[in-house]
Automatic annotation (TrEMBL), chain A:
Pfam family, one: Rubredoxin_C
Pathway(s) served: Nitrogen metabolism; nitrate reduction (assimilation)
The keyword Glycosyltransferase is annotated on this UniProt entry: no
UniProt name for this protein: FAD-dependent oxidoreductase
Positions of the FAD/NAD(P)-binding domain: 6-289
Residue ranges constituting the NADH-rubredoxin oxidoreductase C-terminal domain according to the UniProt record: 325-389
Cofactor(s) this protein requires: siroheme; FAD
Keyword Cell cycle: no
Keywords: Heme, Iron, Iron-sulfur, Metal-binding, Oxidoreductase
From TrEMBL, chain B:
InterPro entries assigned: BFD-like_2Fe2S-bd_dom, BFD-like_2Fe2S-bd_dom_sf, FAD-bd_OxRdtase, FAD/NAD-bd_sf, FAD/NAD-binding_dom
Domain FAD/NAD(P)-binding: 4-285
Pfam families: Fer2_BFD, Pyr_redox_2
Alphabetical UniProt keywords: FAD, Flavoprotein
Domain BFD-like [2Fe-2S]-binding: 404-450
Top-level taxonomy: Bacteria, Bacillati, Actinomycetota, Actinomycetes, Kitasatosporales
Known cofactor(s): FAD
Protein name per the record: FAD-dependent oxidoreductase
Annotated source species: Streptomyces macrolidinus
């Protein structure tokens, strides 16, 4: 019976889920108990990053907290804030954090998350340009907002639309610039994108698709003042938010001689394990069999997979995750699930669109027309939970019935 | 009142009009003047003569009643509106009370060097599909079909089936683009590829030489025969000559009258409500309407919804359009099915649950056509309508046990049921026991419904969906 140490590098949503899983599972651990050391970069414990935008509509950072007193008060858990891991010595089995402290580990789980990707456009460093990732970013945006003025959001994905909604809450007039031909191109198809764009245009959000930023010019005060798009559009905007995707935080890989995936991320197998049997990676920094996942739910599955291994339990490997999502963006319900883009060979697409109601629904079926593979919903997502639950299975009723909730 | 009717033209529209006039008890004479030597025949089936499926004689329409006077191989030279007479090219003069123009249309010839000889004839090897005279079986060898409208596509597939090497050249970027949308075009492209017809889209012909056609990108395609399917133009010369109002076709009103109240026009030469007819069924409908008008019914002509069905073996397709411009109201709803691998496609615009217009390819053609014709409300299971399935589904509406209900926390239907059995009888208790609903919250409705189902008496269970 010996106490072992688990070091978790990073305290975001995936890291937090790992801590939770370890705490609930620890009691029955035959080999003894785990002491958990969490090394966080941010100045606050784990919070619900998915709900970040609620800070712009009245919520406080406290409302987003995931790590309650039960975790922080657990004697087996040590949380160190402002303490990002700066180096790993795999031979010695130690990590060093920014404050210079060294922690020994029996198991190390990298949960360093990701950083916003800022496209290399001239002017991106100007004051008035922001990213959208942390509580501090949101605070800064709120402080810089100028009601009545235009603002530009770079990226028409999930986060970009949330940012646009937030800026609208702050009284600004958001423009969304998206490189793809339609919004949320990862989750939904062209038809859903059209319905979404029409609905948010009615709310005063201007959508510019199939174009990119050419540059940001400063005004007399040296702050961002004018944004030019590649299609020639010019927007006088004192505020620019970059939400054009993320890149995994994998800078610890090279010094520690850990492998990186081709497109970044700590390369791990389907058990989320690196080539070092004592080192795992989970969440957005992990490239599971080469592929990174940028949503919360896959990160949770990875955390659960690793917790089971550490606790010596049977369980499945990480089986991958789709980009399924159901959101309310600027009051518009949107969802994409499973094979939303009908990429499965021989698949069938069935679409219902109600122009009066502003709703769009597509279901993707396999070639026999009976098994649900995925779909897209816009304007009305009430059918999402049932359709998502049926994804990969035979339909239990007509899609018309399931979609209309009859 | 006894009226003598003279019909100029001897095609399917003239034939139908004459037959119906007799059937509806017309009093007075009926004379039909056909320019072709043959008795009236069904022009729409000429494609079957091209590939040798039918002989020209098999296209002949039923003989007209003996009271109808049929002149063939005769043309009208002049129409004298003041004297109500027509003069024929053999010098005869006929008097009419009512004159009907059913002069049809002639093939539109594209301007391509080498197509027409110095004497104004089509060059050797160049053919059209309009009259029985130009429609005899093609010689063996490669055929190029110019024009990718319905006739061009039908002809290309027929000739390919008959063993010819076929190239289809179309100047637009999609085949049958006047009737098909992008999805239907994609399925049609697949069909042509599968059946081995080479298709050249977005290409014009720049020169015809014996045995080959040169395209505007410099390609040369084999054309032992060049079949022109480049559309038709209404035959309006007789109408122009006697100064009737003519736009694209001879302009007619809701009583199928031209600008001269004693002269009517029907079929491919007539322009009603801004549209020139294009189908034999449309021509027949006008013939029938005019026969009723001339025999005393006062009902104005109102075209039925247009239904266009290409004649392609083992390929059911239909384009449904509203009868007139007035029918093209903004659709409220659209439904569509794309099954490219299975060769099925549908796009329907609906209003009040009824079909306004659309395109269907595949086994659903018959059922959809039936609903369109009757302006009936679509059934609730529209997917089954479009796929032609029997509409039965697995599990009879119940969520399978291993279906994941809460994806954030990976909670299955079975796990929720087990928690219920363990005493968690409301959503909050189920959330505590399984974590379901505590992630993004989107499964809350399903969990609530599950509580309602499990909490209701046993006989009420099982049917919920």
């Amino acid at each position: 019976m010996r106490t072992r140490t688990l070091v978790v590098a990073g305290y975001g949503m995936a890291g937090h889920r790992l801590v939770e899983e370890m705490r609930t599972g620890n009691r029955g651990d035959a080999d003894g108990t785990w002491r958990i050391v969490v090394l966080a970069e941010e100045p606050r414990p784990a919070y619900d990053r998915v709900a970040l935008s609620s800070l712009l509509s009245g919520a406080s950072a406290r409302d987003l907290t995931l790590a309650g007193p039960d975790v922080l008060g657990d004697p087996r858990v040590e949380v160190h804030l402002h303490s990002p891991v700066t180096g790993i010595d795999r031979t010695a089995g130690t990590v060093t954090c920014a404050k210079g402290r060294v922690f020994g580990y029996d198991a190390l789980v990298l949960a360093t998350g990701s950083r916003p990707f800022v496209p290399p456009v001239p002017g991106r460093e100007l004051p008035g340009c922001f990213v959208y990732r942390t509580v501090e970013d949101i605070d800064a945006i709120r402080a810089a907002a100028q009601p009545g003025r235009d603002a530009v959001v770079v990226g028409g994905g999930l986060l970009g639309l949330e940012a646009a909604g937030g800026l609208r809450q702050l009284g600004m007039r958001p423009h969304v610039v998206e490189m793809a031909p339609w919004l949320m191109a990862q989750q939904i198809d062209a038809g859903g994108g059209r319905v979404l764009a029409e609905a948010i245009a009615r709310l005063g959000v201007r959508v510019h698709c199939s174009t990119v930023l050419r540059g940001i010019e400063p005004g007399a005060n040296g702050r961002a003042a004018r944004v030019t798009l590649d299609d020639g559009t010019v927007v006088d905007a004192p505020l620019v938010v970059f939400s054009a995707g993320v890149r995994p935080r994998d800078e610890l890989a090279d010094p520690a001689a850990l492998a990186r995936a081709e497109r970044g991320g700590f390369l791990v197998d389907q058990w989320c394990r690196t080539a070092d049997e004592r080192v795992w990676a989970i969440g957005e920094c992990a490239a599971v069999e080469g592929r990174c996942h940028g949503l919360a739910a896959p990160g949770y599955r990875m955390a659960e997979t690793v917790a089971r291994q550490l606790l010596g339990r049977e369980g499945d490997a990480f089986a991958g995750a789709d980009a399924s999502a159901r959101l309310k963006l600027l009051g518009v319900d949107v969802a994409g699930f499973g094979d939303a883009h009908a990429r499965t060979g021989g698949s069938i697409e069935y679409v219902r669109e109600d122009r009066r109601a502003g709703t769009y629904a597509k279901v993707v079926l396999d070639r026999d027309g009976r098994t649900l593979l995925g779909g897209v919903l816009a304007g009305d997502t009430r059918a999402y939970p049932v359709l998502r639950a049926l994804t990969g299975r035979e339909l239990t009723a007509s899609p018309d019935t399931l979609l209309t909730g009859a | 009142m006894k009226t003598d009717v003279v019909v100029v033209g001897g095609g399917p529209a003239a034939h139908r009009l004459a037959a119906r006039l007799v059937q509806y008890g017309h009093r007075g004479t009926v004379t039909v003047i056909g320019a072709e030597d043959n008795a009236p025949y069904n022009r729409a089936l000429l494609g079957s003569v091209l590939d040798g499926t039918l002989s020209p004689g098999q296209l002949t329409l039923p003989a007209l009643p003996s009271t109808v006077r049929l002149l063939t191989g005769t043309r009208v030279r002049t129409i004298d509106r003041a004297r109500h007479t027509v003069r024929l090219d053999d010098g005869r003069e006929l008097t009419y009370d009512v004159l009907v123009l059913a002069t049809g249309a002639r093939p539109r010839l594209p301007w391509v060097p080498g197509l027409v000889t110095a004497r104004g004839q089509l060059a050797d090897g160049v053919r059209t599909v309009r009259t029985a005279t130009d429609c005899h079986p093609l010689p063996a060898g490669p055929v190029t079909v110019l024009g990718g409208g319905i006739l061009g596509v039908e002809s290309a597939l027929r000739l390919r089936r008959a063993g010819h090497e076929v190239t289809l050249v179309h100047r637009e970027h999609a085949l049958m683009e006047r009737y098909f949308d992008a999805g239907a075009c994609a399925v049609l492209d697949d069909l042509l590829a599968e059946r081995g017809v080479a298709v050249q889209l977005g290409r014009r012909a720049t020169e015809f030489m014996p045995g080959k056609l040169v395209l505007d990108d410099g390609q040369v395609v084999a054309a032992g025969t060049l079949l022109l399917c480049t559309g038709v133009e209404p035959e309006t010369a007789p109408a122009r000559a006697c100064e009737l109002a003519v736009r694209d076709g001879v302009v007619v009103d809701d009583r199928l009258r031209t600008s001269d109240p004693h002269i009517h026009a029907i079929g491919d030469c007539a322009e009603h409500a801004g549209a020139v007819g294009a189908t034999v069924t449309g021509a027949w409908e006008q013939a029938d309407a005019l026969a009723r008008i001339l025999t005393g019914t006062n009902r104005p002509f109102s075209p039925s919804p247009q239904v266009l069905r290409p004649r392609i073996a083992d390929f059911d397709a239909v384009a449904l359009t509203p009868a007139s411009a007035k029918g093209i109201e903004e659709a409220e709803e659209t439904i569509s099915l794309m099954d490219r691998a299975g060769g099925r496609y549908a796009w329907l615009a609906l209003r009040g649950g009824r079909i306004q217009r659309g395109v269907v390819i595949g086994p659903a053609v018959a059922a959809v056509g039936f609903l369109h014709e009757r302006a009936a409300v679509l059934p609730e299971d529209r997917l089954a309508l479009l796929t032609g399935s029997d509409g039965t589904y697995a599990e009879d509406g119940v969520l399978p046990d291993d279906a994941v209900v809460c994806h954030c926390n990976n909670v299955t239907h079975a796990a929720l049921r087990q928690a219920w059995t363990g005493g968690a009888h409301d959503p909050a208790a189920l959330a505590r026991a399984t974590r379901a609903t505590t992630g993004c919250g989107s499964c809350t409705g399903v969990v609530r419904e599950l509580c309602a189902t499990l909490g209701s008496p046993p006989q009420a269970q099982g049917g919920a969906s």
